[in-house]
Write a structure and sequence with these properties.
The complex is a heterodimer of chains A (114) and B (114). Chain A is mainly β. Chain A has one domain: Immunoglobulin-like (Sandwich). In chain A, strands 2, 4, 5, 6, 9, 10 and 11 form a 7-stranded mixed sheet that branches. In chain A, strands 1-3-8-7 form a 4-stranded antiparallel sheet, with no helix packed on it. The N and C termini of chain A lie far apart (36 Å). With 114 residues, chain B is mainly beta. Chain B has one domain: Immunoglobulin-like, CATH 2.60.40. Helices cover 0% and strands 61% of the residues of chain B. Chain B is built from no helices and 11 strands. Chain B is globular. The chains are: A mainly beta (114), B mainly beta (114). The interface between A and B is medium-sized, with 23 and 22 residues.
């Protein structure tokens, strides 16, 4: 069964460092998403991406965050200068079409900022 | 602004009995509701959904009930099995402020006791 893959599974970084989280969405999917879950809290929407541009972003997704689809398969989330409060699980998801409600999620990347 | 609320952070049920997980939402623009299940170290996986035009959807041991007037939905699992132990997220989808949104609740940790 097709799946969304994410790397790394866990990254530890120092505050102020740049981090790139990588995702390979399902190959025929066109819409891509990043969500995050701070420990013990709900899953929060960060950004959606379609046709090589951001279609929507939340208040959390400030200037420190960026997304990119550098080639035909990868979808990356970059945090320019990490803060302690960026520590969370980051989930990538994809859907084949817009308005589709059933997202397929990756296993997540745990980011720990020290 | 918690548009989707799961007021029980945890629930413990005896194997073989019924598990009932509850979810409330505030935005009447939501028209599609989903339950996701999450095991540790994995991403959320889609479990079952219901459209706002229905009040019940059943899939094997899982049934989702929707009460639109009360803005309440519930997930029933019967009979509960040890493998059902996981965190369950309720999610609501709809066009809100010109964009398709999928909003998650905080999750309920279900533990099935043998």
């Amino acid at each position: 069964e097709p799946e969304v893959t994410q790397t790394p599974s866990h990254q530890v970084t120092q505050m102020g460092q740049e981090v790139i989280l990588r995702c390979v969405p399902i190959s025929n999917h066109l819409y891509f998403y990043w969500y995050r879950q701070i420990l013990g809290q709900k899953v929060e929407f960060l950004v959606s991406f379609y046709n090589n541009e951001i279609s929507e972003k939340s208040e959390i997704f400030d200037d420190q965050f960026s997304v990119e689809r550098p080639d035909g398969s990868n979808f990356t989330l970059k945090i320019r200068s990490t803060k302690l409060e960026d520590s969370a699980m980051y989930f990538c998801a994809s859907t084949p079409r817009g308005g589709a409600n059933v997202l397929t999620f990756g296993a997540g990347s745990r980011l720990t900022v020290l | 602004d918690q548009q989707v609320k799961q007021n029980s952070p945890s629930l413990s049920v005896q194997e073989g009995r019924i598990s009932i997980l509850n979810c409330d939402y505030t935005n009447s623009m939501f028209d599609y509701f989903l339950w996701y299940k999450k095991y540790p170290a994995e991403g959320p996986t889609f479990l079952i959904s219901i459209s706002s035009i229905k009040d019940k959807n059943e899939d094997g041991r899982f049934t989702v009930f929707l009460n639109k007037s009360a803005k309440h939905l519930s997930l029933h699992i019967v009979p509960s099995q040890p493998g059902d132990s996981a965190v369950y997220f309720c999610a609501a989808s709809g066009w809100v402020q010109g964009a398709q949104k999928l909003v998650f609740g905080q999750g309920t940790r279900l533990t099935i006791n043998p």
